[in-house]
From TrEMBL:
Source superkingdom: Bacteria
Pfam families in the cross-refs: GGDEF_2, HTH_30, RsbRD_N
InterPro entries from the UniProt entry: CdaR-like_regulators (IPR051448), CdaR_GGDEF (IPR041522), PucR_C-HTH_dom (IPR025736), PucR_C-HTH_sf (IPR042070), RsbRD_N_dom (IPR025751)
Limits of the PucR C-terminal helix-turn-helix domain: 327-385
Stated name of the protein: PucR C-terminal helix-turn-helix domain-containing protein
PANTHER family with a match to the protein in the record: CARBOHYDRATE DIACID REGULATOR, DNA-BINDING TRANSCRIPTIONAL ACTIVATOR ADER
Domain RsbT co-antagonist protein RsbRD N-terminal, first and last residues per copy: 22-155
Similarity-based family: Belongs to the CdaR family.
Transmembrane spans: none
Domain CdaR GGDEF-like: 170-277
Protein backbone atom coordinates (compact mmCIF):
# COMPACT_ATOMS: atom_id res chain seq x y z
CA UNK A 1 0.00 0.00 0.00
CA UNK A 2 1.33 3.42 -0.97
CA UNK A 3 -1.47 5.65 0.31
CA UNK A 4 -0.83 7.58 3.54
CA UNK A 5 -3.47 9.35 5.59
CA UNK A 6 -3.96 12.79 3.95
CA UNK A 7 -3.23 15.93 5.86
CA UNK A 8 -6.03 18.35 6.75
CA UNK A 9 -5.43 20.38 3.59
CA UNK A 10 -6.22 17.35 1.38
CA UNK A 11 -9.21 16.42 3.53
CA UNK A 12 -10.54 19.97 3.18
CA UNK A 13 -10.12 19.89 -0.60
CA UNK A 14 -11.93 16.53 -0.77
CA UNK A 15 -14.81 17.84 1.32
CA UNK A 16 -15.17 20.83 -0.98
CA UNK A 17 -15.05 18.64 -4.13
CA UNK A 18 -17.49 16.02 -2.78
CA UNK A 19 -20.64 17.98 -3.76
CA UNK A 20 -19.36 17.81 -7.36
CA UNK A 21 -19.40 14.00 -7.37
CA UNK A 22 -22.48 13.62 -9.62
CA UNK A 23 -20.88 15.91 -12.20
CA UNK A 24 -17.51 14.18 -11.68
CA UNK A 25 -19.05 10.76 -12.30
CA UNK A 26 -20.77 12.03 -15.43
CA UNK A 27 -17.65 13.63 -16.92
CA UNK A 28 -15.47 10.60 -16.08
CA UNK A 29 -17.96 8.19 -17.62
CA UNK A 30 -18.27 10.27 -20.78
CA UNK A 31 -14.50 10.63 -21.16
CA UNK A 32 -13.94 6.87 -20.77
CA UNK A 33 -16.64 6.05 -23.32
CA UNK A 34 -15.35 8.66 -25.77
CA UNK A 35 -11.62 7.93 -25.52
CA UNK A 36 -11.62 4.14 -25.02
CA UNK A 37 -13.13 2.11 -27.85
CA UNK A 38 -13.66 -1.08 -25.82
CA UNK A 39 -15.89 0.87 -23.42
CA UNK A 40 -17.51 2.90 -26.16
CA UNK A 41 -18.60 -0.32 -27.88
CA UNK A 42 -19.62 -1.84 -24.53
CA UNK A 43 -17.44 -4.76 -25.60
CA UNK A 44 -16.77 -6.18 -22.14
CA UNK A 45 -19.12 -4.23 -19.88
CA UNK A 46 -22.41 -2.44 -20.49
CA UNK A 47 -22.62 1.32 -20.11
CA UNK A 48 -24.86 0.87 -17.06
CA UNK A 49 -22.29 -1.39 -15.39
CA UNK A 50 -19.48 1.03 -16.27
CA UNK A 51 -21.39 3.97 -14.79
CA UNK A 52 -22.04 2.02 -11.59
CA UNK A 53 -18.37 1.06 -11.31
CA UNK A 54 -17.21 4.66 -11.84
CA UNK A 55 -19.68 5.86 -9.20
CA UNK A 56 -18.58 3.29 -6.60
CA UNK A 57 -14.87 3.89 -7.15
CA UNK A 58 -15.07 7.69 -7.07
CA UNK A 59 -17.19 7.71 -3.90
CA UNK A 60 -14.70 5.35 -2.25
CA UNK A 61 -11.75 7.49 -3.35
CA UNK A 62 -13.39 10.64 -2.04
CA UNK A 63 -14.06 9.08 1.40
CA UNK A 64 -10.43 8.04 1.60
CA UNK A 65 -9.16 11.50 0.61
CA UNK A 66 -11.41 13.04 3.29
CA UNK A 67 -9.61 10.93 5.86
CA UNK A 68 -12.53 8.62 6.63
CA UNK A 69 -10.42 5.47 6.83
CA UNK A 70 -8.06 3.44 4.65
CA UNK A 71 -8.85 3.00 0.96
CA UNK A 72 -11.59 0.46 0.27
CA UNK A 73 -9.98 -1.43 -2.57
CA UNK A 74 -12.53 -4.23 -2.69
CA UNK A 75 -14.31 -2.60 -5.63
CA UNK A 76 -11.04 -2.44 -7.58
CA UNK A 77 -10.34 -6.10 -6.81
CA UNK A 78 -13.86 -7.09 -7.87
CA UNK A 79 -13.52 -5.05 -11.07
CA UNK A 80 -10.18 -6.67 -11.89
CA UNK A 81 -11.67 -10.14 -11.47
CA UNK A 82 -14.83 -9.38 -13.42
CA UNK A 83 -12.95 -7.85 -16.35
CA UNK A 84 -10.41 -10.68 -16.43
CA UNK A 85 -13.22 -13.24 -16.64
CA UNK A 86 -14.55 -11.40 -19.69
CA UNK A 87 -11.13 -11.03 -21.29
CA UNK A 88 -10.92 -7.24 -21.13
CA UNK A 89 -7.39 -5.88 -21.65
CA UNK A 90 -5.59 -4.87 -18.45
CA UNK A 91 -4.03 -1.64 -19.83
CA UNK A 92 -7.51 -0.33 -20.65
CA UNK A 93 -8.70 -0.99 -17.09
CA UNK A 94 -5.75 0.86 -15.60
CA UNK A 95 -6.32 3.76 -17.96
CA UNK A 96 -9.97 4.03 -16.91
CA UNK A 97 -8.94 4.32 -13.25
CA UNK A 98 -6.35 6.96 -14.10
CA UNK A 99 -8.97 8.98 -16.00
CA UNK A 100 -11.30 9.01 -12.99
CA UNK A 101 -8.71 9.98 -10.40
CA UNK A 102 -7.11 12.51 -12.72
CA UNK A 103 -10.51 14.19 -12.97
CA UNK A 104 -10.50 14.43 -9.16
CA UNK A 105 -7.01 15.92 -9.28
CA UNK A 106 -8.10 18.61 -11.75
CA UNK A 107 -10.77 19.77 -9.33
CA UNK A 108 -8.29 19.82 -6.46
CA UNK A 109 -5.98 21.97 -8.60
CA UNK A 110 -8.79 24.48 -9.17
CA UNK A 111 -9.32 24.80 -5.43
CA UNK A 112 -5.73 24.65 -4.15
CA UNK A 113 -4.74 28.02 -2.67
CA UNK A 114 -0.97 27.57 -2.67
CA UNK A 115 1.89 25.37 -3.84
CA UNK A 116 2.01 23.30 -0.64
CA UNK A 117 -1.68 22.39 -0.97
CA UNK A 118 -1.18 21.41 -4.61
CA UNK A 119 1.81 19.19 -3.75
CA UNK A 120 -0.10 17.53 -0.91
CA UNK A 121 -3.14 16.90 -3.14
CA UNK A 122 -1.00 15.53 -5.96
CA UNK A 123 0.92 13.20 -3.63
CA UNK A 124 -2.27 11.84 -2.06
CA UNK A 125 -4.08 11.24 -5.34
CA UNK A 126 -1.18 9.57 -7.12
CA UNK A 127 -0.51 7.36 -4.11
CA UNK A 128 -4.16 6.35 -4.31
CA UNK A 129 -3.82 5.67 -8.05
CA UNK A 130 -0.85 3.39 -7.30
CA UNK A 131 -2.87 1.43 -4.73
CA UNK A 132 -5.82 1.00 -7.07
CA UNK A 133 -3.51 -0.06 -9.89
CA UNK A 134 -1.68 -2.59 -7.70
CA UNK A 135 -4.87 -4.21 -6.40
CA UNK A 136 -6.54 -4.17 -9.82
CA UNK A 137 -3.49 -5.71 -11.50
CA UNK A 138 -3.04 -8.40 -8.85
CA UNK A 139 -6.70 -9.38 -8.96
CA UNK A 140 -6.72 -9.36 -12.76
CA UNK A 141 -3.58 -11.50 -13.06
CA UNK A 142 -4.66 -13.97 -10.38
CA UNK A 143 -7.99 -14.43 -12.12
CA UNK A 144 -6.34 -14.76 -15.53
CA UNK A 145 -4.05 -17.45 -14.13
CA UNK A 146 -7.08 -19.32 -12.77
CA UNK A 147 -8.86 -19.08 -16.12
CA UNK A 148 -5.78 -20.23 -18.05
CA UNK A 149 -5.27 -23.15 -15.67
CA UNK A 150 -8.91 -24.20 -16.05
CA UNK A 151 -8.67 -23.88 -19.83
CA UNK A 152 -5.42 -25.83 -19.92
CA UNK A 153 -6.87 -28.55 -17.69
CA UNK A 154 -9.88 -28.93 -19.97
CA UNK A 155 -7.73 -28.79 -23.08
CA UNK A 156 -5.44 -31.46 -21.66
CA UNK A 157 -8.41 -33.69 -20.85
CA UNK A 158 -9.80 -33.31 -24.37
CA UNK A 159 -6.43 -34.11 -25.94
CA UNK A 160 -6.21 -37.21 -23.74
CA UNK A 161 -9.70 -38.27 -24.86
CA UNK A 162 -8.75 -37.68 -28.49
CA UNK A 163 -5.73 -39.96 -28.19
CA UNK A 164 -7.74 -42.58 -26.27
CA UNK A 165 -10.38 -42.71 -29.02
CA UNK A 166 -13.37 -45.04 -28.94
CA UNK A 167 -15.92 -44.39 -26.23
CA UNK A 168 -13.77 -41.57 -24.85
CA UNK A 169 -14.73 -39.30 -27.76
CA UNK A 170 -18.16 -40.68 -28.57
CA UNK A 171 -20.54 -37.74 -28.95
CA UNK A 172 -17.85 -35.19 -28.02
CA UNK A 173 -15.65 -35.08 -31.10
CA UNK A 174 -17.21 -31.84 -32.33
CA UNK A 175 -16.60 -30.21 -28.95
CA UNK A 176 -13.01 -31.48 -28.92
CA UNK A 177 -12.42 -30.05 -32.40
CA UNK A 178 -13.90 -26.69 -31.39
CA UNK A 179 -11.89 -26.30 -28.18
CA UNK A 180 -8.64 -27.48 -29.76
CA UNK A 181 -9.32 -25.37 -32.87
CA UNK A 182 -8.87 -28.36 -35.17
CA UNK A 183 -11.00 -29.40 -38.13
CA UNK A 184 -13.12 -32.55 -37.88
CA UNK A 185 -12.20 -33.61 -41.43
CA UNK A 186 -8.72 -32.08 -41.59
CA UNK A 187 -5.42 -33.73 -42.49
CA UNK A 188 -3.07 -34.64 -39.65
CA UNK A 189 -0.03 -36.49 -38.36
CA UNK A 190 0.56 -37.65 -34.80
CA UNK A 191 3.97 -37.21 -33.17
CA UNK A 192 5.14 -39.38 -30.26
CA UNK A 193 8.41 -38.27 -28.65
CA UNK A 194 10.19 -40.11 -25.84
CA UNK A 195 10.62 -37.78 -22.86
CA UNK A 196 14.12 -37.26 -21.42
CA UNK A 197 12.74 -37.35 -17.89
CA UNK A 198 9.60 -37.13 -15.80
CA UNK A 199 7.69 -33.95 -16.60
CA UNK A 200 10.22 -32.82 -19.22
CA UNK A 201 9.23 -32.10 -22.82
CA UNK A 202 11.03 -34.03 -25.54
CA UNK A 203 10.16 -31.31 -28.08
CA UNK A 204 10.24 -28.00 -26.16
CA UNK A 205 7.91 -25.28 -27.41
CA UNK A 206 6.66 -27.58 -30.19
CA UNK A 207 3.19 -26.04 -30.28
CA UNK A 208 4.49 -22.47 -30.43
CA UNK A 209 7.06 -23.29 -33.10
CA UNK A 210 4.47 -25.01 -35.25
CA UNK A 211 2.08 -22.11 -34.80
CA UNK A 212 4.73 -19.76 -36.16
CA UNK A 213 4.56 -21.80 -39.37
CA UNK A 214 0.73 -21.71 -39.36
CA UNK A 215 0.22 -25.33 -38.23
CA UNK A 216 -2.28 -25.82 -35.42
CA UNK A 217 -1.51 -28.60 -32.96
CA UNK A 218 -2.49 -30.02 -29.58
CA UNK A 219 -0.09 -31.75 -27.19
CA UNK A 220 -0.17 -33.96 -24.13
CA UNK A 221 2.72 -34.75 -21.78
CA UNK A 222 2.73 -38.17 -20.10
CA UNK A 223 5.46 -39.65 -17.86
CA UNK A 224 7.18 -41.33 -20.82
CA UNK A 225 5.91 -39.57 -23.93
CA UNK A 226 5.12 -36.15 -25.35
CA UNK A 227 2.41 -36.72 -27.93
CA UNK A 228 0.83 -34.25 -30.31
CA UNK A 229 -1.64 -34.12 -33.15
CA UNK A 230 -0.53 -31.66 -35.85
CA UNK A 231 -2.82 -30.16 -38.48
CA UNK A 232 -1.41 -30.05 -42.00
CA UNK A 233 -2.32 -27.41 -44.55
CA UNK A 234 -1.93 -30.14 -47.17
CA UNK A 235 -0.69 -33.75 -47.42
CA UNK A 236 2.72 -32.54 -48.61
CA UNK A 237 3.20 -30.49 -45.44
CA UNK A 238 4.16 -33.59 -43.46
CA UNK A 239 7.78 -33.35 -44.62
CA UNK A 240 7.87 -29.72 -43.47
CA UNK A 241 6.56 -30.72 -40.05
CA UNK A 242 9.08 -33.54 -39.71
CA UNK A 243 11.91 -31.24 -40.76
CA UNK A 244 10.84 -28.54 -38.31
CA UNK A 245 10.55 -30.89 -35.34
CA UNK A 246 13.74 -32.77 -36.21
CA UNK A 247 15.76 -29.62 -35.47
CA UNK A 248 15.38 -30.12 -31.71
CA UNK A 249 15.19 -33.91 -31.40
CA UNK A 250 16.90 -35.18 -28.21
CA UNK A 251 15.64 -38.77 -28.21
CA UNK A 252 13.46 -41.17 -30.16
CA UNK A 253 10.52 -39.62 -32.03
CA UNK A 254 7.91 -41.49 -34.05
CA UNK A 255 5.56 -39.90 -36.57
CA UNK A 256 2.36 -41.46 -37.90
CA UNK A 257 1.42 -41.59 -41.56
CA UNK A 258 -0.65 -38.67 -42.83
CA UNK A 259 -4.32 -39.33 -42.11
CA UNK A 260 -7.66 -37.60 -42.54
CA UNK A 261 -10.39 -37.13 -39.96
CA UNK A 262 -9.81 -36.17 -36.34
CA UNK A 263 -11.61 -39.31 -35.18
CA UNK A 264 -8.73 -41.46 -36.49
CA UNK A 265 -6.20 -39.93 -34.11
CA UNK A 266 -6.05 -42.87 -31.67
CA UNK A 267 -4.99 -45.29 -34.39
CA UNK A 268 -2.46 -42.76 -35.71
CA UNK A 269 -0.96 -42.52 -32.22
CA UNK A 270 -0.49 -46.29 -32.20
CA UNK A 271 1.38 -46.10 -35.50
CA UNK A 272 3.54 -43.22 -34.24
CA UNK A 273 4.45 -45.29 -31.17
CA UNK A 274 5.30 -48.24 -33.39
CA UNK A 275 7.59 -45.98 -35.44
CA UNK A 276 9.27 -44.79 -32.24
CA UNK A 277 9.78 -48.34 -30.97
CA UNK A 278 11.43 -49.33 -34.25
CA UNK A 279 14.49 -47.32 -33.15
CA UNK A 280 17.01 -48.74 -30.72
CA UNK A 281 16.62 -47.61 -27.08
CA UNK A 282 18.98 -44.78 -26.28
CA UNK A 283 19.24 -43.65 -29.89
CA UNK A 284 18.28 -40.22 -31.20
CA UNK A 285 16.26 -39.57 -34.32
CA UNK A 286 12.86 -39.28 -35.93
CA UNK A 287 11.11 -41.99 -37.95
CA UNK A 288 7.83 -41.72 -39.81
CA UNK A 289 5.76 -44.88 -40.01
CA UNK A 290 5.94 -46.65 -43.38
CA UNK A 291 2.61 -46.11 -45.13
CA UNK A 292 2.52 -49.50 -46.90
CA UNK A 293 -0.68 -51.53 -46.41
CA UNK A 294 1.34 -54.44 -45.00
CA UNK A 295 2.98 -52.21 -42.39
CA UNK A 296 -0.43 -50.91 -41.37
CA UNK A 297 -1.82 -54.44 -41.11
CA UNK A 298 1.09 -55.63 -38.97
CA UNK A 299 0.91 -52.59 -36.70
CA UNK A 300 -2.84 -52.91 -36.22
CA UNK A 301 -2.47 -56.38 -34.68
CA UNK A 302 0.78 -56.30 -32.68
CA UNK A 303 0.24 -59.47 -30.63
CA UNK A 304 -0.71 -61.58 -33.64
CA UNK A 305 2.16 -60.09 -35.67
CA UNK A 306 4.70 -60.84 -32.93
CA UNK A 307 3.41 -64.40 -32.70
CA UNK A 308 3.69 -64.79 -36.48
CA UNK A 309 7.28 -63.48 -36.49
CA UNK A 310 8.21 -65.88 -33.70
CA UNK A 311 6.60 -68.87 -35.42
CA UNK A 312 8.10 -68.14 -38.83
CA UNK A 313 11.59 -67.01 -37.80
CA UNK A 314 12.11 -69.03 -34.59
CA UNK A 315 14.99 -71.21 -35.90
CA UNK A 316 17.00 -68.14 -36.88
CA UNK A 317 16.05 -66.12 -33.80
CA UNK A 318 17.44 -68.90 -31.64
CA UNK A 319 20.86 -68.84 -33.31
CA UNK A 320 23.87 -67.16 -31.64
CA UNK A 321 23.78 -63.35 -31.91
CA UNK A 322 26.20 -62.63 -34.76
CA UNK A 323 25.02 -65.57 -36.87
CA UNK A 324 21.37 -64.61 -36.33
CA UNK A 325 22.00 -60.97 -37.25
CA UNK A 326 23.85 -61.80 -40.47
CA UNK A 327 21.07 -64.09 -41.72
CA UNK A 328 18.30 -61.64 -40.80
CA UNK A 329 20.11 -58.73 -42.45
CA UNK A 330 20.65 -60.81 -45.57
CA UNK A 331 17.01 -61.86 -45.76
CA UNK A 332 15.81 -58.29 -45.23
CA UNK A 333 18.19 -56.94 -47.88
CA UNK A 334 17.01 -59.66 -50.32
CA UNK A 335 13.40 -58.48 -49.89
CA UNK A 336 14.38 -54.83 -50.26
CA UNK A 337 16.28 -55.66 -53.46
CA UNK A 338 13.24 -57.46 -54.95
CA UNK A 339 14.91 -60.88 -54.75
CA UNK A 340 18.05 -59.96 -56.72
CA UNK A 341 21.14 -61.71 -55.35
CA UNK A 342 23.36 -59.33 -57.30
CA UNK A 343 21.79 -56.19 -55.81
CA UNK A 344 21.71 -57.82 -52.38
CA UNK A 345 25.42 -58.57 -52.66
CA UNK A 346 26.16 -54.98 -53.66
CA UNK A 347 24.17 -53.65 -50.74
CA UNK A 348 25.93 -55.97 -48.27
CA UNK A 349 29.34 -55.72 -49.93
CA UNK A 350 29.37 -59.46 -50.59
CA UNK A 351 29.85 -61.65 -53.64
CA UNK A 352 26.53 -62.94 -55.05
CA UNK A 353 27.66 -66.50 -54.27
CA UNK A 354 27.99 -65.54 -50.61
CA UNK A 355 24.43 -64.25 -50.69
CA UNK A 356 23.22 -67.47 -52.33
CA UNK A 357 24.97 -69.51 -49.65
CA UNK A 358 23.32 -67.48 -46.89
CA UNK A 359 19.89 -67.73 -48.53
CA UNK A 360 20.33 -71.50 -48.76
CA UNK A 361 21.19 -71.58 -45.08
CA UNK A 362 18.07 -69.49 -44.30
CA UNK A 363 15.72 -71.79 -46.23
CA UNK A 364 17.26 -74.83 -44.60
CA UNK A 365 16.87 -73.38 -41.11
CA UNK A 366 13.30 -72.18 -41.69
CA UNK A 367 12.11 -75.04 -43.87
CA UNK A 368 10.65 -72.53 -46.30
CA UNK A 369 11.18 -71.69 -49.94
CA UNK A 370 12.06 -68.35 -51.47
CA UNK A 371 10.17 -69.31 -54.63
CA UNK A 372 6.85 -70.25 -53.03
CA UNK A 373 4.57 -67.15 -52.95
CA UNK A 374 2.92 -68.26 -49.70
CA UNK A 375 6.27 -68.72 -47.95
CA UNK A 376 7.53 -65.40 -49.31
CA UNK A 377 4.40 -63.59 -48.02
CA UNK A 378 4.82 -65.07 -44.54
CA UNK A 379 8.54 -64.29 -44.43
CA UNK A 380 7.93 -60.70 -45.55
CA UNK A 381 5.24 -60.21 -42.92
CA UNK A 382 7.43 -61.76 -40.21
CA UNK A 383 10.31 -59.46 -41.11
CA UNK A 384 7.97 -56.47 -41.01
CA UNK A 385 6.81 -57.46 -37.53
CA UNK A 386 10.40 -57.97 -36.43
CA UNK A 387 11.27 -54.49 -37.70
CA UNK A 388 8.30 -52.87 -35.95
CA UNK A 389 8.34 -54.70 -32.65
CA UNK A 390 12.01 -55.62 -32.29
CA UNK A 391 13.10 -57.92 -29.49
CA UNK A 392 9.53 -58.61 -28.40
CA UNK A 393 9.42 -61.27 -31.14
CA UNK A 394 11.80 -63.42 -29.13
CA UNK A 395 9.33 -64.14 -26.36
CA UNK A 396 5.81 -63.30 -27.48
CA UNK A 397 2.88 -63.37 -25.12
CA UNK A 398 0.69 -66.40 -25.83
CA UNK A 399 -2.42 -65.69 -27.89
CA UNK A 400 -5.72 -66.29 -26.20
Amino acid sequence: MHFVHPDPVVADLAARVEPQLPELVKSTFEQIVEEMAVYGRAEFVSHEELRASVTANLHSAMRTLKGEGSPDLSQAAATGRARALKGAPLPELLRAYRIGLTEVWYRFVDLAVDRDALVAATTAIWALIDDYAEVLTTSYRDTTAEVLLAQQTRRSALVEALFAGGAAIEGTLWDIARVLELSLDGTYVVVAAETPGLGREALPQAEARLREHHHASAWRLTPDLQVGVVSLRGPQAASTIVGLLRENVIGRVGVSPVYSGLGNTARALHLARVALSSMSPGSTGMVQFNESPLAGLVASAPEASVQLAHDVLRPILQLPGEERNVLLLTLRAWFECQGSTRLTGERMFCHPNTIRHRLKRITDELGRSLTDPADIAELGTALRALSLFGDSTRSPAPLR
